[in-house]
Structure formats: C-alpha cells, structure tokens
Amino acid sequence: MRLLWLSLLIPFVKSYPLCLNHRSTGTTSTTTANTSAISTVSIIPIVDKTFNLLFEGNQKFRNGTEYQKEPLSRGYSPKIMFIGCSDNSFSPSTIFQTEIVASQVNVANQFSGKDTNANAAVAFAVHNLGVKHIIIMGHYGCKGVHAAMTLQKSSLDKAVNPWLKPIRDLFFRSKRVEIKNTRDLMRGRNEGAMIVEDDDTGFRALVEENVRENVRRLMNESILSTMYRRKKVEGDEDIKVYVHGFVFNAATGEVKDVGVTSEPGFKK
C-alpha cells in the first residue's frame, strides 16, 4: 500500500514544479511552499493551460488599469444593478461600455423571494450602494429558458428542476401568440424530437416574457415591496428605485427594452 501511495503522490508533486521546494533536514524530509513563486505562478498543474489563461489575463489586467485609478479612488458607488443570466457571454460592463455597475447572475435571470442570496444582493445594492435602477437582463438564445421549454418535467435535473419550473409553467400558460404556436408544434412530440432554434419566434417571445415576469416578481417579492408599503417616518427621505426589463441580442449587439419599467416610490 505504501508503494502504491508513493506512486500516486510523485506525479502529483511533479505537476507543481514551480511552486514547491523539497528540503532535506537530516533524518526527516519536508516540502515547503515557495511563497515568491506562489505570488506569480498558478498552483494549478501546468498541464491545464485553459485555467492558466486566467492568471495570464489577470496580469494583463494589472498592467492596464491606469484608466481605473481615478474612479476607484472615489470608491465603488454604482447607480445601476443588473440581474442577469449565467450563460450570457457578455457582461453589462461590456454591453453598455460602463464600469460602475453592480450585478447578480443566475440561470435564466430569475428573481425569487425565496432566494436569500438574491434578496440580500438587492437589499445591499439599494441600502448600502445607493442603486437607483435595477434591470432584469435576459438574452435571446438563453440556455435556461431553452431547457425549461424543451425538456419533459421528469427529465429535469433535481437541482435544476425547481429553479426552471416557473419558466416552464410560464411557457404552458402564456397566451402570447408566438409562444402558443411553438407550444402547439411541440405538443405530442417526444423529448428531444423537436429542435428549437435560437431564432424561433416562440423561444424569443418566452425569453421576453420571462424578463417581464421577473420584473413583476422583483417588485412583489423583494425588499422593494416591503419598503414601498412602509409608512413614512419623520425625517426619512423619499427614495425611488426604478425596475426595468431588457433583452440582449448577441447577434446584433442590440438591447431591447421590453416595456415593463416600474417605479416603486418607497420610503426609506
């Protein structure tokens, strides 16, 4: 067993040649970390070139941050928060060419009052960062919406199923013509029998309706709803937070406002 263990260990140590030093001290032998190497070299095995791209990119970031020094010196004070999708390849900073934004991402840009993480993010953004606009940011071709629309309920992964269920329910109850047409085409087909393309009008419509639905959910289930109903206390200041719904088209770079902007004039 000892020989087997050593045979497994040796390749593992060899994969970190730049980060570990071997030192012999009489009858004992120890391995210590080279802190100077660790500060500049990834401890991930060097055979994983993809992962090491992160550290190469970080070095480029460190070398090119002159333009950030002035705004960073004034502190982080975003006025806009995005709730976006984890499979959108473009960040809000890239899409809108602005640096000072807060963001929170999940599968299919959803908001749920039962999601303590999202609730905390919204509350912190409004109370602590002074955010004035919250944007639900969807995107055409969303893999989360696609999964909810095309998979049979029994086939959804146990971890994903509860999260995608609201979108799937929306797909089956929506009265929007494009969604109904796609739903009719899929009726009676076995799972995977129909491929829904990114440009399918029903798919695109469901992406938009999902954004609208989550704007409403954010208004009704988040801290915004509580603050909106709260009575004014002497000395408190009126604070308005606008909630919007956008959809991004990666093919054209265009952002579409789906027309559901809400304005909860709550009291702090």
TrEMBL record:
One of its GO terms (biological process) is cellular response to carbon dioxide. It is an enzyme of class 4 (lyase). InterPro entries: Carbonic_anhydrase, Carbonic_anhydrase_sf. Zn(2+) binds at residues 85, 87, 139, 142. It holds the Pfam family Pro_CA. One of its GO terms (molecular function) is carbonate dehydratase activity. Residues 1-15 form the signal peptide. The keyword Metal-binding applies. Its EC number is 4.2.1.1. It catalyses: hydrogencarbonate + H(+) = CO2 + H2O. The keyword Lyase applies. Binds 1 zinc ion per subunit. Its cofactor is Zn(2+). Keywords: Lyase, Metal-binding, Signal, Zinc. Reversible hydration of carbon dioxide. Belongs to the beta-class carbonic anhydrase family. This is Carbonic anhydrase. It comes from Collybia nuda.
